[in-house]
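2024-03-11 09:14:02 DEBUG pipeline.ingest accepted 1 chain
2024-03-11 09:14:02 DEBUG pipeline.ingest length=430
2024-03-11 09:14:03 DEBUG pipeline.predict start
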Amino acid sequence: MPHLPVIVVGGGQAGLATSWLLRREQIDHVVLEAGTAAHEWADTRWDTFTLVTPNWHCRLPGYAYEGPDPDGFMTRDEVVAWLAGYVASFDPPLREHTRVTALRQRAEGGFELETVCDGIAETWTADQVVVATGGYHLPIVPPWAAGLDDAVTQLHSAQYRNPEQLPEGAVLVVGSGQSGAQIAEDLHLAGRAVHLAVGDAPRVARFHRGRDCMTWLAEMGLYDTPVHQYPGGVAAREKTNHYVTGRDGGRDIDLRQFALEGMRLYGLVDGGRGSQLAFRPTLRAALDHADAVYTSINRDIDRWLAAQGIDAPPAEEYRPVWEPEEEPLSLDLAEAGISTVIWAIGYRPDYRFVEVGVFDGGGRPTHSRGVSGVAGLYFLGLPWLHTWGSGRFHGIARDAEHLVERIVEQRAALRRPHIGAALLAGELSA
């Protein structure tokens, strides 16, 4: 039974960042990855995918984007290559194709992990464990979707690759977050007839006052502000990301403009059966809300520029180019010639393998900046783990640094008998 001071579960960017820092601290460890390192970037992104954050945001411990276009947006394949370069840069102790099927506390202290690799089961033990499997695990598809007409192809956004993979006919995209809005755009630009069920996601300008909005926001400190300092506190973790695109050098996504060009827009889907779908009358409110957030962010930037005395090009005020004449409440898929429905309504967390009581009623880990209530158990790579930047390249290094500091402290405590005994007894937390 192999034993290590630290085991990292997950070989994506969060797990790799942790490994780099553990190696710097000369802490023996292993990274257990169910697939291959950072495989989800290739496995769950469509062909024309690009980052929505500028390339200069891409930085991990000991490694940063050094390409020719820091203000550009890497494509899916460029991100995959960049992460492969990270792995090659320090050769982490990585065990690929090794799925963790159970993680438990040991009575004598530390943790036990059961794994499967090529059908062979193995048990590992560790003093401390970092769960770095991210926050997007199970694609969400509404249960009633099984009752839709069998003639309609259904897939989740994680399965979408390009318009050519879909059968001929119109496409309904459900959800207007980052994935839904960009997939709808991809299909629209390819000349497909697109119907889009619009959710409550906000939007953001790609550029404002001469620079990328996300560069301004970074300089304003928005990506460094702890979650508890935002209005609503930790409730910010449930917010949907703003839709925008890095495609073709970056631009706004304006659903009103798409509607002007022929895309059919609807409110929230309210159920369906056979070829019939029902919608809530929320379209106008959703468009207005997205635009209000867009304008609010621009005004925040304007105020900050004025306060800093920064001279920048004048602002351009957004004016809506289209308004819905009515709120469509129903849709006959067959009558509209819709052959495909793409569900872009997110993911549910799946930590069933973690058999430790550190979760809330929704199955999400409870933690303080990634440190759980069980000594030696940590979570990394979650959206809003500590800041807005936590779920993206921009903030992972800082979050990983914090957790590795806690790991080092825990190791030191375990070497002091009176503190180690208290930790094992659950009387102290990390």
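2024-03-11 09:14:41 DEBUG pipeline.report DSSP finds nine helices and 21 strands in the chain.
2024-03-11 09:14:41 DEBUG pipeline.predict end
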